[in-house]
């Protein structure tokens, strides 16, 4: 389901569950992989990608959400919300540089996960990133809105959350929230090379992680209110 490999200072976490839809089992598997990254010492960086060339992540596991008893392997339905939000917060504030190589569609929760990384690379020729809640009649929770606001330029933010815009790689790069685009054969290697460049920033894990928390955590420096990571970790405080 989740494969973690290390080459030099670069960890590569590969999502390997088909469409990589989010349920409690999937969340816990990623959290366990992050434990290994966090337990390391010295320079390091993390690249997240998918084994599928069609889907980076196709969002929430809707079949399980609607009929959890039919999919016991997907885990405890009641635990999903808080654990998913806490995982997004953890990725956002991880004490090493994080890069996301989006090599296929990233919808809903998959788009959220990509935005929680420090840097995004995306496939140029196919695949969309999209927050599709408006299309399916759902309201976006306030912590998720905060994440999008912190990570997207203002015009892209509104198009994303209110107009459900589907972002191609070139459009996302032009908007400024994807650093580099490329073909599927070279995307991961390019992301790993960039990760190796950034890995020395994590030589001082405390410093790297602390600044992320000051950017995105409680009383966030960039907004002077609670940041997206704090809100994701405490969603009960933000009923909508």
What features would you describe in this structure?
The protein is of the alpha/beta class and 240 residues long. The chain has a single domain (2-237), classed as 2-enoyl-CoA Hydratase, Chain A, domain 1 (Alpha-Beta Complex). Helix content is 42%, strand content 16%. The chain is built from ten helices and nine strands. It has helices spanning 24-39, 62-66, 77-92, 109-116, 142-151, 154-161, 169-175, 187-198, 205-216, 228-233, and strands at 2-7, 10-15, 45-50, 55-57, 98-102, 105-107, 119-123, 129-130, 180-182. It has a six-stranded mixed β-sheet with strand order 1-2-3-5-7-9, with helices on both faces. Strands 4-6-8 form a three-stranded parallel β-sheet. The longest helix has 16 residues, at 24-39. The model has no long low-confidence stretch (mean pLDDT 94).
Keywords:
alpha/beta, 2-enoyl-CoA Hydratase, Chain A, domain 1, 42% helix, 240 residues, single chain, 6-stranded mixed beta sheet
Helical stretch tally: 10
> Which percent range fits the helix content?
40-55%
Mean pLDDT: 94
Instruction: List the helices and strands in order.
Output: EEHEEHHEEHEEHHHEHHH
C-alpha-based Rg, rounded:
17 Å
């Amino acid at each position: 389901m989740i494969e973690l490999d290390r080459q030099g200072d670069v960890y590569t976490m590969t999502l390997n569950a088909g469409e990589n839809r989010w349920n409690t089992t999937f969340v816990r598997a990623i959290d366990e992989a992050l434990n290994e990254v966090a337990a390391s010492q010295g320079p390091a960086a993390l690249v997240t990608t998918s084994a599928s060339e069609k889907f980076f992540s196709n969002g929430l596991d809707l079949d399980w959400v609607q009929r959890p008893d039919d999919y016991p392997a997907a885990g405890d339905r009641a635990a999903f919300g808080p654990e998913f939000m806490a995982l997004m917060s953890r990725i956002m504030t991880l004490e090493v540089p994080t890069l996301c190589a989006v090599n296929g569609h990233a919808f809903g929760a998959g788009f959220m996960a990509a935005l929680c990384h420090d840097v995004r690379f995306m496939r140029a020729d196919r695949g969309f990133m999209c927050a599709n809640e408006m299309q399916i009649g759902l309201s976006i929770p306030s912590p998720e809105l905060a994440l999008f606001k912190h990570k997207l330029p203002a015009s892209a933010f509104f198009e994303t959350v209110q107009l459900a815009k589907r972002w191609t790689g070139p459009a996302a790069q032009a908007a400024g929230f994807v650093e580099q685009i490329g073909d599927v054969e070279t995307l991961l290697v390019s992301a790993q090379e960039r990760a190796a460049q950034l890995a020395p920033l994590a030589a001082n894990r405390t410093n790297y992680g602390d600044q992320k928390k000051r950017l995105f955590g409680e009383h966030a420096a960039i907004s002077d209110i609670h940041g997206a990571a704090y809100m994701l970790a405490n969603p009960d405080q933000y009923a909508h």
